[in-house]
Every structure is written in structure tokens, then in C-alpha cells.
Amino acid sequence: MSPRMRQRIRLIAGVWLGWTIAGLFYIIQETVPRLYRGGAVPWKYVFVGWMTGMYVCAALTPALLWLGNRWPIERRVSNAALHLCLSVVFSILATVLEVPILLLLGVFPAPPPPPSLAAGVRIMLSFGIQGGVIRYWAIIALHAVYRSQKNAKTREREAFELKVQASELARQLAAAQLSSLKMQLQPHFLFNTLGAIMVLIQQQKTAQAEGTVEKLGDLLRLTLDDVEAQEVPLWRELEFLRLYLSIEQVRFEDRLRVRISPTAPSEVLVPHMVLQRSWRTRFAMDLVRARRW
User: Fold this and answer.
1) What are 271's strand-pairing partners?
2) What is the C-alpha separation between 26 and 32, in angstroms, rounded?
3) 15 Cβ neighbours under 8 A, 6+ residues apart
4) Which of 33, 87, 151, 266 could anchor a disulfide with 133, C-beta 3.0 to 4.6 Å?
């Protein structure tokens, strides 16, 4: 069974159950005073009569739901005026459909002999037209409440989906920024370091050149190990920063002095390369100030 068919079955069952409860309410409302006064209750007339009227309304309810969707009362005042006219039409139509059924079942609420169809409609409308109007507005109002709640849930779901999309976009942006930083580090930093090593070799500082090559290898290994990582433990980030700064010290010599306070190993997760990015920004600003002086 398709979901649409299940939805229709639930709607039909809900309409039938709702009007059945309404019919039982009217039956109790009519019979309890009679029983309290000790009078006789014509159960056949009361039960069949009320339930016939309720099930006629149930048969017309899909049309009322369509009218409620077509002209929602919560959007325009003119729609409410239109529904007022339609409620009178509904009451008349329900009565026209109800009277022949009551005459056929022999439970028309009037002294015998049974009236004609036209006379029966006039009798029912004379004391029952306002009841049809009230039932019409009850359906329209309940449908408007249901529609309002459904729209509210839809807006909540859309807001949640927007938050999820925003979170995903923020994650993708952070990943793109990190990837950009890594791509910037790998060629630019690598070429500068290789140039510094060449200078050390030309100056015959073999031991220092070998140490720089070893540090560069360790740094590249760490970079490749964490190339897909968004967050790393703090101790690993500090290890990466120490290697990076030790190579930068070879390039800048006396112009760069590094001091890292000893810290206990920490497993706290931090964004990868956040320390290196912060240091590069601050160092670049210091170089600009030095050149101005």
C-alpha cells in the first residue's frame, strides 16, 4: 500500500470517527434530560436520526476541506465572508440529503403521517439550519488550526535544514582554508628551505645543512600524516610548530628568536596548523614594522 493511500485511509477513518463522536454527543445531550425527567426515549428516532445527519456531514467533509484550502480564513477577511455564505449553502445541502434518508428509514422527527420531501426539507430547515452552519464552521476552524500547526512544523524543519546546511558550509569553508594553508606551506616553504640548505652547503656548513634536511623530512612526514585531519592533539600541533620554527631559524638566523614555554602533553584537539598560521601572521606584521623603521 502506497503512503498516499494510507494517508487517505487515515483521513477517512478520522473523519468517520470524529463525526461519530459528535453524533454520540448530540444523542447524550438529547437523551439525558429526558431520562432525568423520567420520560420515554425514542431510541430509534434519536440514534438513527442524529447519526444520519452526522454521516451526511461526514460525506460532505472532503468538500469542506477543499474549500478551506482554496480560501483559507486566516489569510483574508473576505474569505471569512465567503465561508459564511458557503456555510448556509452547506446547511441547506446537508438537509436536502438528510431528509430523504430519514423518510426512507421511517425515522423522520415529525408526527405521522410522514411529510412530503419538500415539506420535510422545510421542517428540518426551520429548526436545524443554524446547526448546519455551526458544523460547517467547526470543520473550517479545525482545519485552519491543523494547517497552521503543519505550516509551523514545516518552517521548523526548514529552519533546522538551513542550520545543518550552514554548519556543513562552515565545515567545508574551514576545510578549504586548511587545505589552502597546507598547499601554501608545502611549495612555498619547501622552496625557501631548499634555498637555505643550498646556502649552508655553499658556506660549507655541512652539519647544519644535514640537520635542516632531517628536520624538513620530519616536518613533511607530519604534514602528510595529517593532510586530511581537521583537528589534531595539542601536543602534536606543538611538535609541528617546533619543527617549523627550527627550520625558520635557519633561514632568518639572528632575526628570529623562539622561546616555547614547556607544557605537559595534552590530548585536547585544536585546529590543525592554527599555531603555525597565528605565528606566521604575527611574524609578517613584525617584519613590516621592522622594514618601516
Assistant:
1) 231
2) 10
3) 58, 61, 62
4) 87
Q: Which of 129, 146, 163 marks a domain boundary? A: 163
Residue 263 sits in the same domain as residue 140:
no
Total count of domains within the chain: 2
**pLDDT surpassing 70 at residue 274:** no
Q: Is the peptide bond before 109 cis (omega within 30 degrees of 0)?
A: no
Of 30, 18, 47, the C-alpha closest to 107 is 47
- 290: pLDDT strictly greater than 60: no
**Could you tell me which residues come within 8 angstroms of residue 57 by beta carbon, excluding any fewer than 6 positions away?**
19, 94, 132, 135
Higher pLDDT, 243 or 265: 243
Task: Tell me the mean pLDDT in the region 136-145.
Answer: 91
Residue 181, in any domain of the structure: no
- Radius of gyration, alpha carbons of the chain: 42
| pTM for this entry | 0.56
State how far the Cα of 120 lies from the Cα of 108, in Å rounded to an integer: 8
How far apart are the C-alpha atoms of 211 and 103, rounded to whole Å? 109
Q: Is 240 helix (H, G, I), strand (E, B) or coil?
A: helix
pLDDT tens digits for 30-45?
888 888 888 777 888 8
**Which DSSP letter does residue 113 get?**
S
Q: How far is 256 from 106, CA to CA, in rounded Å?
A: 108
